[in-house]
Structure formats: structure tokens, C-alpha cells
């Protein structure tokens, strides 16, 4: 399991990858060619994956994302050390916080 700031990246066994993920449309890459896992609303910095692969959003804004990196990849952020991911499938989960009356994704 990997964590970078408010982003948790959990490895998935290949058998646990939902069937719909194999045919799903990938999230677009940003202008620098990265797969953005979380964009800092305050700083503009991004938790992003560099390398070949696919990022698939599940279940709306609060839902987790699936990440497939067939050759491995690096997770980068302007304020954190880079993380090397071995090849495989991952579930990406954003940290949430409770505020009276609602739950929201943590603002970076």
C-alpha cells in the first residue's frame, strides 16, 4: 500500500479488477501527459502518475479510481517524495473529512 499526502494507492489482485474496468474509457491526461490522481485546489500542485497506463474513474466525484500501470510508474508531487509503483492494478482513494452536515474530499 502506498500513500502520498491525501491519496491512498492500494494494490489490487488481478482477479479483483472489475470486468467493466477492462473496457472503460480512461481519464484524460493533463497538459504535461500525466494521469492526475488529485489536483490541489489551494496550491495547484498535483498528485500525478508519470508513465504508461490508464486511470479509470468509478462512481462519481467521491468514488475511487482504478489505476493500471503495465510497466510500473512513478507518482509525483511538487511537495512530496516520488513513489515508484510496480506494474499492476491499483485502487486510488482520496482522503475525506467530515464537516458538520457533509463529507468532503480533503483540500490540498
Topology:
Elements lengths: L1 E3 L2 E6 L6 H5 L11 E5 L6 E5 L3 E4 L7 E5 L3 E5 L2 E6 L2 E7 L1 E4 L2 E4 L3
Antiparallel strand pairs: 1-2, 2-9, 3-4, 4-7, 5-6, 6-9, 7-8, 10-11
* Number of domain units: 1
How many strands appear in the DSSP assignment?
Answer: 11
Q: Distance N terminus to C terminus? A: 21 Å
**Secondary-structure class:** mainly beta
Shape: globular
Proportion of beta-strand residues: over 45%
Overall average residue pLDDT: 83
Strand order of the largest sheet: 1-2-9-6-5
- Helix and strand pattern: EEHEEEEEEEEE
Describe the structure in your own words.
With 108 residues, the chain is mainly beta. The protein has one domain. 5% of the residues lie in helices and 50% in strands. The protein has one helix and eleven strands, in the order E-E-H-E-E-E-E-E-E-E-E-E. It has one helix at 19-23, and strands spanning 2-4, 7-12, 35-39, 46-50, 54-57, 65-69, 73-77, 80-85, 88-94, 96-99, 102-105. The chain has a five-stranded antiparallel β-sheet with strand order 1-2-9-6-5, with no helix packed on it. Strands 3-4-7-8 form a four-stranded antiparallel β-sheet, with no helix packed on it. A two-stranded antiparallel ribbon has the order 10-11. The mean pLDDT is 83.
Amino acid at each position: 500500500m502506498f500513500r502520498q499526502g491525501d491519496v491512498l494507492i492500494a494494490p489490487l489482485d488481478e482477479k479483483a479488477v472489475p470486468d467493466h474496468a477492462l473496457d472503460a474509457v480512461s481519464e484524460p491526461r493533463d497538459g504535461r501527459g500525466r494521469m492526475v490522481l488529485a489536483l490541489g485546489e489551494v496550491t495547484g500542485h498535483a498528485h500525478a502518475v508519470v508513465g504508461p497506463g490508464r486511470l479509470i474513474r468509478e462512481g462519481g466525484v467521491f468514488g475511487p479510481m482504478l489505476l493500471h500501470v503495465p510497466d510500473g510508474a512513478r507518482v509525483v508531487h511538487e511537495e512530496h517524495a516520488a513513489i515508484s509503483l510496480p506494474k499492476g492494478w491499483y485502487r486510488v482513494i482520496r482522503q475525506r473529512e467530515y464537516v458538520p452536515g457533509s463529507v468532503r474530499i480533503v483540500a490540498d
